[in-house]
Each structure stands twice: as structure tokens, then as C-alpha cells.
Design goal:
homodimer; about 230 residues; alpha+beta; Nucleoside Triphosphate Pyrophosphohydrolase; Arc Repressor Mutant, subunit A; seven-stranded mixed beta sheet; 6 helices; 10 strands; DNA-binding
Chain lengths: ~230, ~230
DNA sequence: TCAAAAGTGTTTATAATACACCCATGG
DNA sequence: CCATGGGTGTATTATAAACACTTTTGA
């Protein structure tokens, strides 16, 4: 007996993406203005449907690329939302991803085509369907991830100052951190390269630029990175 | 314009469940012997398909109930698996849940009907499809959860000894813990009720029984429970 | 010369770890 | 009377947190 699955219900599977960015002040998300009914004109996460011949990761990459023009974006699947009438048009289950991008790398033109806009997470508007719930869950996941391993560099330019990194962590964790303790802790992880180069835009004195050292990071055990802030 | 989704691919959505139990020695999982092709006779997680009118949580509860006869099982959704040919019969995306049950509460009869069997996690057999991958991810999630908040009581009988609790944590985390440090840490959480009652089966002296104090647990902030072991 | 941000160490408090002996009882 | 598992506290180490002044330089 070879069982087939013909009697089983098939459903639409959507992928929705929370795109995080950072503008040196706030943690931001990229939202689009929905241009079709229902909920036309309302703010929404970027999303799309899973094609039959692609994995969820691939669908997420495709969707992220559609709005940002970028490839190889850091992303993580985090939850499947399945309330029966979450989408009034048709039964749709949504698998959600969050993505971290350097806010300066996105494609302006695409953003305009989608009527997309960056919002501070703390000032996010009311979103369609259950997208606010998705956002909340994504933020909490990001906060937890940040405490376990130093992700977040994806949100910064290649070269960045300690202050930028600190501001980023403050934005993600939504709390102020002590400058000295922060620097000490980051330095103790030994995963940054200090450059002989200063960023002169932020102060008269200038501040050293750093790069993330992927090689050193990879060499260390994942559990060596308990970054309690 | 009201967009409909008629052109989009629909897919089968499965829910697979990793059912964890604990026999005072090892962390165990409940597996079934698949009784239809393909992979008939191989070991498998219990699973089923999402019905059109139910949420994923409800589907998981239904599936868990089918095998255990139990209601209100502690469970958590943890990942959606979507490799294109993960199921050779038809394109199927699987949303996976892990569940924690008291191994003594399940229904023996149902277990027999399914040719189900408890396996030690460390001696799990080769499973069908990507189920071993699911199991691995479930264990890691459970380990992380255990470190963040004291879940795990679901795996024990209502009344349990400190030693049982310690053995449970050792089984989940797969490492030995110091008896005194463990007790001190658990006591400092202040979420157990020490009963005036001893379990006499494990030693001549007998050991005090404890209960989980749900009320105290709920009163405390979630982040007060950093339980680093 | 001064405003604004960068850079830098030490002390204290808290949490984690390591560690060993006595107790109670049934056989 | 002894074998078995239960119960208990302290000292040490490691990590986290609190805290303030000097440096640089462009305007």
C-alpha cells in the first residue's frame, strides 16, 4: 500500500519578512504600503507565496531581494502563523523570517516602487493582519539571539565605530549600556579588528573604526559567545 | 481591485511532533513504526496534516492526543522544514512541534495501536525523511529553553524528588551537575513546594517530595529565571 | 578656549563553581 | 553494622556592574 495524500487539504503558504535596519539611532523596519485590496493603502510587511519548487529559505531570499535588490541577506526563520482567518482572502499560513541588512545597501528605486518606508521599531504603525504580532515576536527573537551570540554586525557598515556598535545593541535591547563595560566585553570576545583609521564625522577627535573578524569568529565555539549585556 | 490568490501554488502542510518523556534516567522520545509506504516499517515521528479549519497549534494538539490520549500537553512550535523533496510522495512542508509529557500519563493502548515505542534520545534510530534533523533541532531548542526558564516539570510526575529533577536536567543538558549547586540554584528560584512527604522507593532514608508552584512561578517575571547550569 | 565625543581601569557586588562529610534506614 | 542514597554549607573564582576623569581638535 502506497498512501497518497489526495484527501488532505492543501493551503497557501506565505512567507513574510521583517527587515531590520539601523540608522545609528534606532532599530528600524522596512514596511511597504499595500497596493491592493483588502487593506489597500495600509502598512504591511513584505511577503509573498511559496512556490512549489522552492524551499522556504529560498522564498524568503527571493522576497527580500525583490524589495532590497540585495543577495545573501542574513535571515532567520522564526515562526509560522496560522490563525484560521488571519488573511481574509483565503486560508493562508505564513512562515515568518526576520532579516538584518545594512540600511545603506538597499536599492532606493525598488523601495520607491513598493512605496516602502523605514520606520523606527518604536514608532511602527498599525500593520495589516497579524503583522504587528509577527514584528513583536521577531524583535524578541532578535533580542534573545543578540544575547547568545554577537549577531548584529549585518546591520552595520563594514567599518564601524565602537559607539555605533553600542548604539546598535542599545537599540536592539532597548536599554542603555555603560560605555566602558560594553567596550570591555566586546573586546574580551576578540572578534573585532581595530583599524588604523578613524571616522572623523562624529567628533573632532575622531573615533577608531573596527571590522568584524569573521575568521576569528568562526574559529571559536558558539557557546563562547555568551554576551550578557 | 481585490486580489485573489488563485494563481498561487497550494501545498500540503504537515505537523510533526517530537514527544519527549523522561524515565528517571534518560530523555526519551516516542516514535511510531510507519505502517504505510513509502518507508513502511521505518521509525518516524508522529505527524499529520493540517486541516483547513484549524490552527497549527490545534493540529499539533490533535496529533498529540491521537497518540497519547492526553489533553493540554505542553508544546512549542519550533521550525518549518521545507526541502523540496523531503517527502517523496508529494510536496509537503512540515511545521514541527516538540511536546513534553509525563511518561506515565500516556495511553498504553494507543501506543500499541501505533506500534509506538519510547527510545532514549541518545539511542534514537534512523528516522524517515528529515525527522532526525527535526529531532536534533528540537533537542537544541529544549536545551536552550531549559536554560532560560525552568520548563521540564511537565516531564515529571506531579510529585518528584530533587534527585529526579536533577537527573532530568542532566538528561536534557547531557552533562553532569553538582548536587549541592543544583539544589541551591533551584531553591533560589523559589518555585517549588517542599512536601511533608517522602519517596521511600529510592533509598532507605527516603527523599522529600516537591511540587512545582505554578502560582509563585506566574507571579515572577520571566527574566528572573535565568537558570544557568 | 571650549564644546563635544572618544578613550580608558579599578573597585565592588553578584553569581558560578568546586568541594566532603554526616544522616537515616532497611537488610 | 554497613551499604546506599539523601541531605547540607563554605571558600574560591569568575563575571557583571558601577563609576569619573583626561584627551583631542575643529569651530
Amino acid at each position: 500500500m502506497l498512501k497518497n495524500y489526495n484527501n488532505e487539504d492543501k493551503v497557501l503558504l506565505a512567507v513574510d519578512c521583517i527587515i531590520f535596519g539601523f540608522d545609528n539611532e534606532d532599530l528600524k523596519i522596512l514596511l511597504i504600503k499595500r497596493d491592493f485590496e483588502p487593506e489597500k493603502g495600509k502598512w504591511s510587511l513584505i511577503g509573498g507565496f511559496l512556490n512549489k519548487n522552492e524551499t522556504l529559505d529560498l522564498a524568503a531570499s527571493r522576497i527580500l531581494n525583490r524589495l532590497t535588490g540585495m543577495q545573501d541577506i542574513y535571515m532567520e526563520q522564526f515562526y509560522a502563523f496560522s490563525e484560521v482567518d488571519r488573511d481574509p482572502v483565503d486560508r493562508t499560513i505564513s512562515v515568518s523570517y526576520y532579516a538584518l541588512i545594512n540600511i545603506e545597501n538597499h536599492n532606493e528605486e525598488l523601495i520607491e516602487n513598493y512605496n516602502a518606508k523605514w520606520f523606527s521599531v518604536s514608532k511602527a504603525p498599525k500593520l495589516i493582519f497579524d503583522h504587528n504580532e509577527m514584528l513583536g515576536k521577531a524583535i524578541r527573537r532578535l533580542q534573545r539571539r543578540t544575547s547568545i551570540r554577537p549577531i548584529g554586525f549585518e546591520l552595520l557598515p563594514e567599518k564601524f565605530t565602537m559607539r555605533q556598535l553600542q548604539k546598535l545593541y542599545e537599540a536592539i535591547l532597548n536599554k542603555e549600556l555603560d560605555k566602558r563595560n560594553f567596550i570591555n566585553k566586546i573586546n574580551s570576545l576578540d572578534i573585532l579588528i581595530k583599524l588604523n583609521e578613524k571616522d572623523m564625522t562624529s567628533s573632532t577627535k575622531g573615533s577608531y573604526l573596527y571590522m568584524f573578524d569573521q575568521k576569528k569568529y568562526d574559529e571559536k565555539q558558539v557557546n563562547n559567545f555568551y554576551l550578557k549585556l
